[in-house]
Amino acid sequence: MYALADSAQAMDFIDLVMYRDCPGTLAILMEDNALPGVCVAVDGGDHPDAVFSVCVCVTEVLKRNPQIAGVVLASVRPHDSPDCDDIDRWFELVHDFEQLGVELLEWFVVGPAFAVGMRAMTGCVSAWETASDQ
Question: Rounded CA gap, 12 and 63, in Å?
Fold first, then answer.
């Protein structure tokens, strides 16, 4: 099994399973041992707010999988780059997952020639770094 120890490894995993030229969102649901437990991929969703619809699906999966401790999201936007509203989306997503008792480890906004981790973009401490420091 392929453990994900940091955001770079998560992005490598995302590149294995998603096409950067097709809009969609991937949710990697991580068990507390850093192993991907469940992957949810949703095609389409050209609008940046589509990530919230995917999170509704993820919530249902989380209810059936209590061993899930963290989530990594990736939204592929082949024709759009990250925008300033993504910062607000990030904090809303963090809050929503916290309410479920799950940590949003990272949310990548991905295009054909870029991948931006919103955790770093917002200045938040890496969840992987804090876990390895303990």
Answer: 27
Helix (H) or strand (E) holding 128: helix 127-133
Coil, helix or strand for 97? helix
Q: Which amino acid is at 122?
A: T
C-alpha dihedral sign at 39, 97, 119, 126:
negative
Q: Quickly state the pLDDT bin for 134 (edges 50, 70, 90).
A: very low
Parallel, antiparallel, or unpaired for β 68-76 and 24-31? antiparallel
Helix or strand or coil: residue 107?
strand
Quote the mean pLDDT of the chain. 85
Polymer length of the chain:
134
